[in-house]
Amino acid sequence: MPGTLRTARPRAQLRQGRNDWYRISNNAGTGPAVVHIYDEIGYWGVTAADFVRDLAGVRASEIELHLNSPGGEIFDGIAIMNALRSHPATVTTYVDSLAASIASVIAMGGDRVVMAPNSQMMIHEASSIEIGNAADMRKMADLLDLQSDNIASVYAAKAGGDVAEWRARMTAETWYTAEEAVVAGLADEVSSVHSITEANSPQDLSWDLSIFNYAGRDAAPNPLDALGRSPTAEPEPADAVQDEAPAAEPPAAEQPAEAEPLEPLIALTPEPDPWADMVAHFAAAPADPWAALTAHFATPTSPERGDQSKEDA
Q1: 54, 90, 98, 296: which has the fewest C-beta neighbours closer than 10 Å?
Q2: With helix as H, strand as E and coil as C, how does 84-114 read?
Q3: What is the phi/psi pair of residue 5, to 5°?
Q4: Structural domain of residue 216, as residue ranges?
Q5: Is beta strand 22-25 parallel, antiparallel or unpaired with respect to 5-6?
Q6: Quick one: which of 264, 184, 172, 179 has its CA closest to 226?
Q7: Three-state secondary structure call for residue 62
Q8: 42 in a domain, yes or no?
């Protein structure tokens, strides 16, 4: 059994009971037509079929759309936004108090979006209640992702950025003050004077916002903090940053001089010279025959040899 697709979780109940869900006045074309959506979108509140039928009867050239709604049905809200965009009149959206969930998408149907002082806007992911098996749950999860991408594209078309950036803000459930909505690009200005008059203002409504992750902007993180950036962070002064001198590189160690290779001490044997051998006897001193004959006289006779001579005599 498929669940009802919504951007609010359970219904954001009125503490004072339900009031008229919308009202269109001065639609005869004699001045701006004034439209109030001061209820939940869908269920027993504003439905697309009722709203689109009555909006089609407006002949005025200008429409002032006043919003104070906690959100509701996705498909009804998108149908209302598209009906406003396709109307030939110039539409100005006034967020009188709260434009949360799918009501923030309806606000994008105006040619201009004006935030009243102290008003708020909230964006978050689509959610649903589903009953069924695992396949039913997976199918619903895919449908929720598809619708969240669709809603994110509406914010991106108004404020700039891409779908992924706005999905991140939606996942964080981001609340904006009037001024923050202008800075984010979701609104064009904050009105200096509240646009609601006593004659055309519906009964004041008080919403029970406890069904959301945060019960209003005061309880929610700063819109920039939701994306991990702090709006109060200031860059460090330039003179406070000291340029550190690069660490001196240690001197390169001196490499020992390479010793010259010692020549091997090798005893060289001269190569034989056959010619020198042949003439060597010519260079030798001539033999002395007389010296050879008298050599024994120059040799002393040993005593033993002398004694032996006497005996022999």
Answers
A1: 296
A2: HHHCCCEEEEEEEEEEECHHHHHHCCCCEEE
A3: -85, 125
A4: 5-227
A5: unpaired
A6: 172
A7: strand
A8: yes
Whole-number Cα distances in Å, 124 to 151, 154, 170, 173:
9, 13, 4, 4
The pLDDT assigned to 39 comes to: 83
Domain count, the chain: 1
Percent of the chain's residues with pLDDT above 70? 52
**Which residues sit opposite 91 in a β-bridge?**
63
- Beta strand 120-123 with 112-115 is unpaired
Burial (CB count <10 Å: 0-12, 13-18, 19+), residue 218:
exposed
Helix (H), strand (E) at residue 177 = strand 174-177
Q: Rounded CA gap, 92 and 158, in Å?
A: 14
Nearest in space to 36 (alpha carbons), one of 204, 182, 158, 188: 204
90: which 2 tokens? 């110039």
Residues written for the chain:
313
Structure tokens belonging to residue 136: 């039913």
Domain CATH for 210: 3.90.226.10
Task: Report the chain's terminal Cα–Cα distance, integer Å.
Answer: 165
How far apart CA 101 and CA 99 sit, in angstroms, is 7
Mode of pairing for the β-strands spanning 189-190 and 112-115: parallel
Is 234 part of a structural domain of the chain? Answer: no
Please identify which residue in the block is written with the tokens 């098996």: 133
pLDDT one-digit tens code per residue, 50-86: 889 899 989 899 999 999 998 989 999 999 999 999 9
User: Looking at the whole model, is its pTM more than 0.90?
Assistant: no
Asked whether residue 106 is assigned to any structural domain, the reply reads yes
**Which residue is associated with the tokens 């539409």?**
91
Q: What CA–CA distances, in Å, run from 80 to 10, 52, 109? A: 21, 7, 8
